[in-house]
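Re: your question about Putative EXS

S., sorry for the slow reply, the queue was backed up all week. Below is exactly what I fed in.
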Amino acid sequence: MVSALKYSTAVPVIFLSALKYHVFPDNWINFYRPLWLLSSFLNSLYSFYWDITRDWDLSGFTRIFKFTKPHLVSQLIYGQNWVYLWVIGSNLILRCTWTYKLSAHLRHNYLTVFAITALEIFRRFQWAFFRVENEWNKMNSKQNVQMQDISGEEEKLLNLNNHNV
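Result:
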């Protein structure tokens, strides 16, 4: 349900973008445009939050760069702190740019639409790498827990076989 909420926040943005062509310019500027901006802002922020906390599991912003406590985040594949700062910052900016593609004044500027579309492709490509990293970390942490359980059981079995004659 929470994931569906993320996608449902895009509906007002798309609806209001389409409505631009069917209302008087004064109505658009005074009433609908602020609604469009608000819904775009909410959708972008919620989608950014979802990427960081759910898809990439980087929710512990304060723990991302502190490796003193073992945590899923401390097993980062890419390792360099600046990579994570870059991906968080660029994801926020690129999440906000997709709404401009829906803007009426950009429809006829093909170079701008192309650039925004190329940036969205880059954002999704970048998203995929960190999503895979998150799944990799989850799989490895489960395997480590299972391996610890197995080695604990093996020790118990070996200790049972120590008989004094």
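Residues 64-74 have pLDDT under 50 and may be disordered. Residues 51 and 78 are 17 Å apart (CA to CA).

Happy to talk it through on Thursday.
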